[in-house]
Amino acid sequence: MRALSITACLGLALTGAAPALAQEADVAKPPPVNWSFSGPFGTFDRAALQRGWQVYNEVCSGCHSMKYMSYRNLAGIGLTPAQIKAVAASKTVPGAPDDSGQPTTRPALPSDRFVSPFPNPEAAKAALGAVPPDQSLLELARPDGANYIHALVGLGYVDPPKGVKVPDGFYYNKYFPVKLIKMPPPLSDGSVTYADGTKATVEQEARDVVTFLTYVANPDMEQRKHLGIRVVGFLVLLTGVTYMVKKRIWSDVHGHHDDGHHGDGQTHA
Amino acid sequence: MAGLHKSEIQNPVLNWIDTRLPLITLMQKEYGSFPTPKNFNYFWNFGALATINLMVMIATGVFLAMNYDPSATGAFDSIQRIMRDVNYGWLLRYIHMNGATMFFAIIYIHIFRGMYYGSYKAPRELLWITGVFLFLLLMATAFLGYVLPWGQMSYWGATVITNLFSAVPLVGNWIVTLLWGGFSVADPTLNRFFALHYLLPFVITGVVFLHVVALHITGSNNPLGIDVKSEQDTVPFHPYYTAKDSVGMCVYFLIFACFVFFAPNYFGEPDNFIQANPLQTPAAIVPEWYFLPYYAILRAVPDKLMGVALMFSSILVWFILPWLDTSPVRSARFRPIYRAMMVVLVADMFLLGAVGAHHPMGIWILLGRVGTAWYFLHFCALPFIGYLEKPLPLPESISNPVLRDYQGPGGSGGGPLPAGAAAKPMEKP
Amino acid sequence: MSSTAVPVHQEAEFQGTTRRDFLTLLALAGAGVGVAAVAWPFIDSLEPAADTLAAGEPLDVDVSKIAPGQQIVVMWRGKPIFLVHRTPQAIKTLQSPKLLSILSDPNSHVAQQPTYAQNWHRSILPEFAVMVGICTHLGCVPGFFPNPSPTDPAPNWPGGYLCPCHGSKYDLAGRVYLGVPAPYNLPVPPYRVMSPTMLRIGENPEGSDFDLNSVVQI
């Protein structure tokens, strides 16, 4: 059985190494950030969430939709019902047709979904030249999403290396897989004035907006980890107890492994 | 009252029921006092774990189906609704998603046990064959299920795999049209895949029943591969294996919980968080990890029909394993060559898995072909290995681990195989 | 090698120690707790989801557009809600002895309305009626016939509702007639007056507490 375990380990190592082998040699790996939400005990930094929401609301939402979020979901980042009502009321959504069948508009309610900047992808493409991806699941839709998005918008817009020509309508970003991205640098120092007074550098804005995007993609995360600790703790204890019961029940069986006889014809010395 | 079962239950109400529908007596006989070899190792836990996993999948699946919308326009959105708005919807979904991974991990270990210890040999051929059939049903169920979220990988994986069937001569294109219900993977496809995904687990349950009946007729194999000789070799299933299986179950739930609560998307593909787009193919179409070896075999040869044939053959060959392997010895513990071959086969499966995860370029093409060739070589070699191999001396019985004709250190060892060590056509338990 | 007469594992079953029973009991209890804990999310997932609850939030209705004698119907929590702008004449008729004598529950004794609507006009403001438009017989939506008429839709019609399914009749305060299949007055939902032109359906006035599910028959 030993040979088998070694083979299994080698095999797992090979498959584990596979993604690394599959990458192109010159794709820049996003630097890992020490996120507050990493690890089994991670939580979302509420202040960062609210700053990140501010960045999305004031900068990103001009081009990017977030269609799976409703205004009432902002309770999860710590906004009060009054604040949520105010945010919603500041947006306009289609209303019910009027008596002559004409479309109307109304202020949004907390139960409404986030308003999209464009009615459909075609309008977005016509206005911008490309369709900005919806951001509801973006953190999950990219490998190592949080670190990648942070690197892309916070660190990636650098001068192209010597000799690389950037065509019109494109920008050079060192973390984008094909380097040439259609999105202009979305963040700059002071793009937003943070309500809590934090200095708004590009890197800070990137960090905060990624925290917010990670929350939007994983709103269950804190409840999930909290419940997970209890479930795993309970199961560790239960495993221990059932194992003790099993050993006691089996203690009187001859020919079982633990009483000095091997089942394969060899006896202990 | 002729023909009524004579129940031995004391309680009068239970006795009345049991006389007319002897479920209690049945459970006592099949899972209470059932004589089970006493030398099982933890590999024997995995059949029970698979049954538990099946029940978990059906339970979570039914509750997910209460909120799922099987239409091309609504499916992706309905899953987001489950994740965000349905109470504990995220938990149901993550259990179901990771449950599929757990199911295949359990089944692969379960199959390995069967292959290593010769559980497929006489008289357990039909136990093995129902098992292979169950594996095929499981793969079909998993494939159908993966399409339902209607992400990019769902859509394009469905497109690639359904297109394979066009390789079938004469009726291939017709089969593909019937699968699609249209001119491509679209709304009708999703709807029928949902109906079938809901149906197949219940077909699996039925075949599991047959699988367990087959097991109870022949009795279980054991790590030594030799038959039970007397009551001494066995213990009643309860409490010995109910207790031992409970330990295994706790460990299974523990591992399961670690993934569900702390790494729920570890086995997932980021691309499947993007809604299906028929106009944009993802950079890499990869199936879930448990299909990777067969994906590698499919792409090992350039010809479409050969690739499909080889891929299906790689599983279909398992059906004839009881007859391919000619060795009279069951357990690999006593078969040095076969044991080495099993180690290599496992390594080969891992290799093929890695190949399946990569684009068929460069070294991966060669590795894929080598891996596929070895895989089939393993099974083709078995008939010969059975005759050429010199097995190690077998113990007298499970209880009596002393070797028959044991001649001490330096002695020639071995001798004629003790009665019951070899697979016999039919032997009373 | 012959075996001993009594298999050893059977002997062990006759020994009992407190520690053994405690461990087994603990394991079984743990398993029981585990099963219950696992069952809970399944049951809870059947409760209305967050988006369903959000859609059932209170609804603001602008009643200034309703002409006297007219009714509008809005949907709230999947139910039709009648909002009627009653004319002074209609309000007067609500108190007429002739009408009261043919009603089954003229004083709204049966709990089909909040306490703030337990009066002769079954509403907060007499000029606006707010009722759940579901017949208390078998659930059809009653038809609106506000104008008094000697013949139409029924003889000596004072103005009110006539249910098309089995002929139940209600007045313009939703009070049910005697001798019709429907047993109770139309329910009044929780609502409050935000301003002379705005009613909020689904929310009680400050200090009041009323749940529509507490009525006898919706």
Give an overview of the whole structure:
The complex is a heterotrimer of chains A (269), B (429) and C (218). By secondary structure, chain A is mostly helical. Chain A has eight helices and four strands. Chain A has helices at residues 2-22, 46-58, 81-89, 121-128, 138-141, 145-154, 202-217, 221-250, and strands at 92-94, 105-107, 171-172, 180-181. Chain A has a two-stranded antiparallel sheet with strand order 1-2. A two-stranded antiparallel ribbon of chain A has the order 3-4. In chain A, a hairpin with a 7-residue loop joins strand 3 (171-172) and strand 4 (180-181). Chain B has two domains: 36-281, Cytochrome Bc1 Complex, Chain C, CATH 1.20.810.10; 286-393, Helix Hairpins, CATH 1.10.287.980. Chain B has helices at residues 12-20, 23-32, 46-65, 75-84, 89-117, 125-147, 152-164, 172-180, 187-218, 237-262, 292-300, 304-316, 321-324, 336-357, 363-388, and strands at 35-37, 234-236. In chain B, strands 1-2 form a two-stranded antiparallel sheet. Chain B is globular, with a radius of gyration of 24 Å. The relative contact order of chain B is 0.12. Mean pLDDT of chain B is 92; it is low at 406-415 and 424-429. Chain C has a three-stranded antiparallel beta sheet with strand order 1-9-8, with no helix packed on it. Chain C is elongated and about 85 Å long. The N and C termini of chain C lie far apart (82 Å). The model of chain C is unreliable at 1-16 (pLDDT under 50). Chains in contact: A-B, A-C, B-C. The interface between A and C is medium-sized, with 19 and 19 residues.
